[in-house]
Design a protein that fits this description.
- This protein is of the alpha/beta class.
- The protein has eleven helices and four strands.
- Helix 5 (97-108) links the parallel strand 3 (89-92) and strand 4.
- Helix 6 (116-128) crosses helix 7 (134-146) and helix 7 (134-146) packs across helix 11.
Length: 216
């Protein structure tokens, strides 16, 4: 039923094609190898090989395929583990259907996508598991961000908003290659491995992207 629902939601976007469905994590990895899709949507909990293990294997052997994880409330530990294995998108199953389409599109474009509910849960969970209280984590995040240049902070804010390199380039009127270099520098300076982890830091630090000029 979950797979049927995901397929039905994705079918509403003519730009997205579902090339295969898997009944478990092991089959998901095999199908990704066979089809090499732009994005793999994985449930955190799946038979045989769970979503975390499948995501790690996909990112290790097929890095061109972005991974979007579907989670439920109460699976915060899984979200943190998925962040560590390179998943780029995180969505709550009970979220709005539009979020699934937006998340798949963002990850296909090379961006990270954290559902606002997921971002809030991650930040709160980190604060409740011995990783420091919320105020303390926010202070640490702001201190880490303070080491960035003004331009790098702008790029980080847009990473937190789930924008791709191309979207950031258009928003900041830069060449996409320049944005890519800034993103690499931001990840290195923050000491994180991927865009989703950087997005968590952005949320912790309270750095939000400004609205587009046409929306102001």
């Amino acid at each position: 039923m979950i797979r049927a629902g995901v397929r039905a939601v994705l079918a509403t976007d003519p730009g997205i094609e579902v090339v295969a469905e898997a009944a478990d994590g092991h089959e998901a990895v095999e199908l990704v190898r066979a089809h090499r899709p732009h994005v793999a949507v994985l449930d955190v909990r799946m038979p045989r090989t769970n979503g975390i293990e499948a995501a790690a294997e996909i990112r290790r052997t097929l890095p061109a395929t972005g991974v979007v994880m579907l989670t439920t409330f109460g699976e915060d530990d899984y979200i943190l583990r998925a962040l560590g294995c390179g998943a780029a998108g995180f969505l709550i199953k009970s979220g709005e259907p539009e979020e699934l389409v937006a998340g798949v599109r963002a990850v296909a474009d090379g961006a990270a996508y954290l559902s606002p509910k997921v971002a809030a849960r991650v930040v709160a969970h980190l604060a409740s598991t011995g990783a420091g209280d919320l105020a303390g984590r926010r202070a640490v995040a702001r201190e880490r961000v303070a080491g960035l240049t003004t331009r790098e902070r702008e790029v980080l804010s847009h990473l937190g908003g789930g924008l791709s390199n191309g979207q950031i380039a258009r928003r900041l009127h830069l060449v996409e290659g320049t944005v890519k270099a800034h993103v690499s520098s931001v990840l290195a300076r923050l000491g994180v491995d991927n865009r989703a982890a950087a997005a968590v830091v952005a949320h912790e630090a309270g750095i939000l992207p400004p609205p587009p000029a046409e929306q102001r």
